[in-house]
Structures are given as structure tokens and as C-alpha cells.
Request: fold
Amino acid sequence: MFRKMKNIDTAFRHVRTFTLAVILACVLISGYSIHQSMRSIARMQSRIYVLDHGKALQAYSSESKDNLPVEARDHIKVFHHYFFTLDPDDKVIRENMAKALYLADASAKRSYDILKENGYYAGLISGNISQGVQMDSISLNVDHYPYGFRYYGKQRIVRPISTTTRSLVTEGQLRSVSRSDNNPHGFLIERWSTVENRELGTENRTPR
Reply:
């Protein structure tokens, strides 16, 4: 009788151990399944489908902080492109300046007004002069807000008989603002100023 009770007790312990093992395995499997499901849902939610001429193209969203340096540098690049890319056409100058001034505060507007009052834009039109800018690099500090930056580039001024290259170094700060069609990156350039704009050289253009 004693041996029989001992066997029953041993069998009960084995059943209990097996049951606990099964329960633990179910809990682990359920937890893993929930974790994988949440990851799958997060991946699906990060997918964006964009219609392009009737075709659905897949894109992926990301946290704004992940793209902050990229978007900030592109904002700075776009601003300088519009502010310094000019042709001897009053409409082109006004359109480019309007686009540039949406991306910056009154400091850029003051620079524009000074150049306008000094007859700079009128001189471009009357002299058939075009100018453009090529970016070399952008130094950006995203560790402190507002984000300080310094832009390095070269300005090319094309006249009928010559092409002048000038160094261009500017600096300022970036403040976050609401995104819009006119300001897709959601930044505003503040305290913008030109640090350096010296002539590097002039080349004569070969007449045709």
C-alpha cells in the first residue's frame, strides 16, 4: 500500500511538472507571437503608398528626429539655391526670392532689401548677368536648439565677357515651424548673415 501511494505521489509530481512546463511554454510562445505581431503591425503602419500617375509606389515613414540632419541641410541648401540663383529676368528674380524668403526670417529680407536698394538686381538685368551657387558643405549642430549652421559654397557670376567665381560662407540658426507647401521641411532660418564673399578668380569667356 505504501509503495502504491508513493507511485501515485511520484506520478502526480511528474504530471504537475509536465503541466507547468506546458503552461510556461504556452506563455513564452504567446509572448513571442504578440511581440512579433506588434512588430509586423509597426512595419505595416510605417509603409506609405504614394500614387504616381495612377501607380501605387511604396514608401516608408520614419521618425522626424531620424531625418532631422538630412532635412535641415536640405532646407539650408534649397534656401541658398533660390537666394543666389538669379538670371537677368525680373520675373525669375522675384519668383526665386519669394521662394527663398518663405524659408527664412527678416534677416534674409533685410539682405534682399539692401541689395535691391543698391541696384544689384537692376544691374543683373541691365548687364545680362546670371549667377548661381554651388554648395561645398554645411556644418550643422543639432545638439543645441535652435540649430546653428554654417554654409560653405561658391558663387559663379556669369557676364557676357567673363565668369567670376567667389567664395560664399554664411551662417545662421534653424528654428522648427509648421510644414507647408512653401516650407516642406518645417524649418525657418534665423539670424542669417554672410561671413565671407571674396573673389577667387575671373576667367574670360571665349566669344562665339
